[in-house]
Design brief:
By secondary structure, the chain is of the alpha+beta class. Helix content is about 50%, strand content about 10%. Strands 5-4-3-2-1-6 form a six-stranded mixed β-sheet. A hairpin with an 8-residue loop joins strand 4 and strand 5. Helix 7 runs antiparallel to helix 11.
Length: about 270
């Protein structure tokens, strides 16, 4: 079993949990293991006390059956560790074929999300995963394995814009139909910041972190959205609180606005 040097991030407590995760992943996957990487805010430099630990594990083949159950049990054990970060892991196990480029025939992969009680599950990694693929290739942190650029093909601006359109036409529209999902301030803030990222990618063809996209949106979008964006940047630090009813209404209006914003790009995809 190969461990890691505890210097991949500036956060010793995060590094300690990452090392435990890596060693357990190697033990479970054996010859299926190709590499493990950090993406998300740790890779982009926007990590803070309210972030999660985004990771990607690349495997030789798609994971299913008994191996999936062993990984699931492993994550159940890690969630019980005495660490603030034990339930803040968010990541996927992607085969080397599927991580290189999107293939709808190889889109179901194990994924775990942050939060108490979350378990590893098989999730459809559709076109929207192009964003993760781009971040992994461009700024991903290698914990063990080949450099991400050896595993992931370049992701074009067109692919990234297409991913955002899928996101807005699916995930965002679902929130309009089920507004109760943004009753909590944490998720309501997440939605606003994610919409800022979508706007940024649609206009620029590039990927930005949520803080960078929020700053861009404040300068670019109409001034009426500025209070909502500013409150979202603060609200992500208080996920346990209920969302303000006025901000819920404004978030729903921002989703409606995103449909108009995206129309400019739909004919170019």
């Amino acid at each position: 079993m190969v461990g890691i040097e505890n210097n991949f991030t500036p956060y010793p407590d995060v590094n300690s949990l990452i090392q435990v995760l890596l060693e357990n992943v190697q033990a479970v996957l054996g010859e299926q293991f190709i590499g493990m990487y950090l993406d998300g805010s740790l890779a982009s430099g926007d990590f803070d006390a309210d972030s999660d630990i985004d990771f990607v594990v690349v495997t030789r083949e798609d994971i299913a059956g008994e191996l999936f159950l062993r990984l699931q049990a492993m994550h159940d054990r890690i969630a019980t560790l005495d660490s603030t970060w034990a339930i803040q892991l968010e990541g996927s196990y992607i085969s080397q074929h599927a991580v290189r480029r999107y293939d709808p025939e190889h889109a179901m992969h194990p994924n775990i999300e942050r939060g108490s009680g979350e378990r590893l599950k098989l999730v459809d990694h559709n076109e929207t995963w192009a964003v993760h693929r781009s971040v992994l290739r461009e700024v991903g942190i290698t914990l063990l394995g080949p450099a991400p650029g050896c595993l992931v093909d370049p992701v074009s601006a067109q692919e990234l814009r297409a991913a955002m359109l899928v996101l807005l036409n699916g995930w965002a529209k679902n929130i309009l139909e089920h507004p109760q999902t943004i009753a909590g301030r944490g998720y309501q803030s997440y939605v606003v910041l994610s919409l800022c990222r979508a706007f940024y990618t649609l206009q620029t063809g590039q990927v930005a972190s949520k803080p960078a996209a929020a700053a861009w949106a404040k300068e670019t979008l109409a001034e009426r959205w500025t209070p909502l964006i500013e409150h979202a940047r603060e609200g992500r630090h208080h996920p346990e609180r209920p969302a303000d009813p006025d901000e819920i209404r404004e978030t729903l209006k921002l989703i409606l606005y995103s449909a108009l914003f995206s129309q400019t790009y739909e004919n170019d995809i």
